[in-house]
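Annex B, item 7. Sequence and C-alpha cells for protein A, then protein B.
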Amino acid sequence: MDVSVTDTPMDQLAEALGAEMEAVNALIRERMASRHAPRIPEVTAHLVEAGGKRLRPMLTLAAARLCGYGGPYHVHLAATVEFIHTATLLHDDVVDESSQRRGRPTANLLWDNKSSVLVGDYLLARAFQLMTETGVMRVLEILSNASAVISEGEVLQLTAARDLSTDEDIYLQVIRGKTAALFSAATEVGAVIAGAPAEQVQALFDFGDALGIAFQIADDLLDYGGTTAAIGKNTGDDFRERKLTLPVIKAIALATPEERTFWQRTIERGDQQEGDLAKALEIMARHGTLAASRDDALHWADRARQALKPLPDHPLRPILSDLADFVVARLS
C-alpha cells in the first residue's frame, strides 16, 4: 500500500478501503431513499453528505478485512453502523438544541425538531433492515444491544446533566454509551461476520471500546481549546449548554468553596454572564484538569493500541494502531 508519510491514519484507512467505502456509500444512498416522504432523503443527505469522516463504517470494514473476510456483508454492516450513528446525531441535535454540526447548520435548525426525530427513527429502522440481511443472529444481537446502550447513555447524560455530584465513573458510563458503544460494536461485528476466533472478536471489541472513550474525551477537551473549524461546533458550547464533561468534573472535585459557588451558578442554575467561560478555563488551568483529562485520553489510546496485539499480522493493523494515537493527537 503506497501512502505518503504525511497522510493521517484516517487517510490511509480511506485509501486502503476505498472500493469498499464506495460500495458502502452507494448502499447508504440507496437505502436512505423514500418513495413516499421526500423529506427523509432531504434531511438525511444534509448530514450524510456533510463531509463526515465515516470513521465508524471504516472500522467495520477494517475489522472484517483484518480477520480475513471475503464476503459482501461487511458492506451492509458498515452502512448499518453509519445509519445508527446518523440517527443518533439527528436526535442529539434536537435534545441539545444545537445549531451547528460538522460546520453546517443542523437539520433541526433548517427543518424542524419533528423532522429530525422522525427521520432519525426512519434511519434506525433502515439500519435494522440492513443488519437482518446478513442472516447472522450474533450480528443482530451486538448492534441491537449497542443501540440500547446508546439510548441508555443519552438518558443517563440527561439525568446527570447539571448535577454537580456527577463523578468520573458516571461520566465514563455516559461516554461508553453515547460514543464507545458504537465504536466497539462497529469493530466487533466486523470480526464476527468474518468468523474470527473468540480471542480476536474480544480484541476488536476492546480496541473499539478504548478508541471510542479516547475519542470522546479528546472531543470534550477540544471544546475548551479547539477551533470551531476543527471540532465542527462552536468552541465553548459544552460550557454554555452546561454539560458536565471530564475537565469540569475534575475541577468541581477539586473546587474551593468560592469555585464551587461559581460552578453552582453557571452549571446548576445556568446563570451565565460575560467572562464566565474565561473564568471556567482559569479554574481548570489552576487545578490542571485539562492536562489531567488529556492524560486520561492518552491512557485510553494506549489501551486501544495494546488491544490489537492478539490480531493477525496485516497491513491494516499498524494503521489502526496509529489511529488510536491520531484521535488524541488533535489535543497537541
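Protein B:
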Amino acid sequence: MRAPTSFCLLAQRLWRHHPALLVGLWVLVQLLYLRKFHGPYFANDSARYLAYAANIAERGYFEPGHNLRYVLYPLFQSLWLRLGLGWWGIVAGQMAISALATRAVYQGTRRLSHGQRGAAALATLLFIAWPDIQPFNVFLLTESLFISLVALSFGAFTQLQSGRRKDWLRLIAVLILTALARPNGFLVALAAALAGLDALRRRPDRRPWRAALLALVLLSPLLWVALNHQLATYYLMDTYQRGELIFRYQLWAVHQAAPLNMPPPGTGPVARVVYFGAHNPLYLGRLMLGKLFVFVSYLKPHYSLAHRIIGVVVLWPAYWLAARGAGRTEVWRPARVFLAAIFLLQTAIIMLTVDDWDVRFLAPVLTVIFVLASLEITGWWADPKPATV
C-alpha cells in the first residue's frame, strides 16, 4: 500500500503548486518552439504584414484595401520596428500578450466554476500544451495576437458578473481590438451581443428586449453595408466554382453535376452569396458540409498520422464534452452563450467561405472548446451551485 499512498502524497504536493507548474510549462513550451523554428518564423503571409508595418513605422502610412482588415497586427509590429527591436521584439510582444491570455483562461474558467481550480487548471493546461496554439507565438502572423485576444475577451467577459463599470469598459476595449485583428474578429463582439440579447430576453421586463430588437432593425442597413465591406476583397464565387474545401487545394474538392447558376455582374458581395445559395442549394449544401468536416475533424491532408490521431483522440471527445458543458445550468448562462456563439459563428464563417490547409482558423476558437469541456469534466465530481443569471 506504500506505493499508492506515496503517489497520492506526491500528487497532492504537486497540486498545491500547480499555478507555478503551469507557468513553468508555459515558459518551457515557448523555449521549445523558439528552438524548433530557430527564432522568429517568417511564414508565407509575413512579408505583407512586415511591409505594412514598415510603412506605418516609417511614414505613418496605412495601406487601404484588403490589408486594412488586419490593421491591428501591422500596427502592433510597427511599434517594435520603431523601437528598433525588429522580429525578436515582435515575438517577445506576442509572447507577453500570450502570457496574459493564458492567465485570462485560468482566471475566467475559475470564475465560471465558482472558484474551483480543477477546471481552470485543465483548460489552461490544454491551452498551453495543444500543439497548434502556442507555436503561433513565434510566427510573424496575425494568429498569435488573435488567439490571445479571443482568450482575453473570454476573461474580460467573465468579469461582467461583478457588474462594475470598469469591467464593461475593459470588455468593450478588448472586443474592439479583437475586431481589428482579423476580418472575422467581429464575431467575438457579435457573440457578446448575442449573449446580451439572450440575457435581455430572459428578464421579466420585456421592454429592454423589444428595444434591442428595434435597434437591430434600425441598424440593419448599416450592418449590411459593413458585411459587404468585409467581403469586398474576397473572391468567394471563384472558390465556389472550383468546389474548394481547402483554399487552393483541389484533391479535396466538390465537383458540380450540372452547370452552376452564377450571380449576374454587379451583384454585391453578400447578395452574390445569397443568389448562389438560392440557385444552387444542393451544391452549396455539399460544399458547406464538406467544409464543416474539414474544419472540425482535424484530419487535414498535410498532417502527419500522429497529428491526426491526437485530434481524434483528444479533440473529438472535447467537442462532445464542450457541447455538454454549454448546457450546464450551474455555469453562468451569458458566458455559456458567449463561448458557444464564438465557436458556432466561426464555424458558420468557414462553411460560407473556405478553410485553410492548417488549423489557423480553428486554433483561435479552441480555447472555447477547452474551457467548456473542462467545465463539464470537473462538473462530474463538483457539487452543483446555482449560477447568477
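Comment on protein B: DSSP finds 16 helices and two strands in the chain.
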